[in-house]
Design goal:
- By secondary structure, the protein is mainly beta.
- It has a domain of about 60 residues.
- About 0% of the residues lie in helices and about 35% in strands.
- It has a five-stranded antiparallel beta sheet with strand order 4-3-2-1-5, with no helix packed on it.
C-alpha cells in the first residue's frame, strides 16, 4: 500500500477528472431516496434533470443548491442537493441489511 506521505509523481490537477470514469446516465429513471423533515422519502421512477441554484448568498452556498427531478407523472420537483441519500434502478431492493440500530 502506498504511503499517504509519498504523493504520486503526477497528481491530477484540482477540479480535473478522469475521462475514463463512467458518469451516471441521467436519461434513465431511478428510485431516488431523500431525507426530508427527519424521514426518508422515495421518488419512484424519477429522472435527474439538472442542478439548479436559488439565491446564492456567497461563494460556497450549499443551501441554495437544488436538483431538478422529473417525476414519473411528468411533473417537475426541486429537492435540496444534499438531501439525496441514495438511488437505484426502479424497483430494485435498495434496503441494506440493518446490523445494529441506535437506541431510541
Amino acid at each position: 500500500m502506498p504511503s499517504r506521505f509519498d504523493p504520486p509523481p503526477n497528481p491530477p490537477a484540482p477540479g480535473s477528472f478522469d475521462p475514463n470514469d463512467e458518469h451516471i446516465d441521467t436519461s434513465r429513471s431511478y428510485d431516488i431516496y431523500c431525507e426530508e423533515a427527519r424521514r426518508i422519502v422515495a421518488y419512484r421512477n424519477a429522472r435527474f434533470k439538472r442542478r439548479r441554484e436559488l439565491w446564492r448568498t456567497h461563494e460556497v452556498d450549499r443551501y441554495g443548491q437544488f436538483l431538478e427531478l422529473e417525476l414519473a407523472s411528468g411533473k417537475t420537483l426541486f429537492i435540496r442537493r444534499h438531501s439525496v441519500l441514495k438511488f437505484c434502478e426502479p424497483g430494485a431492493d435498495a434496503g441494506p441489511e440493518v446490523v445494529e440500530e441506535e437506541p431510541s
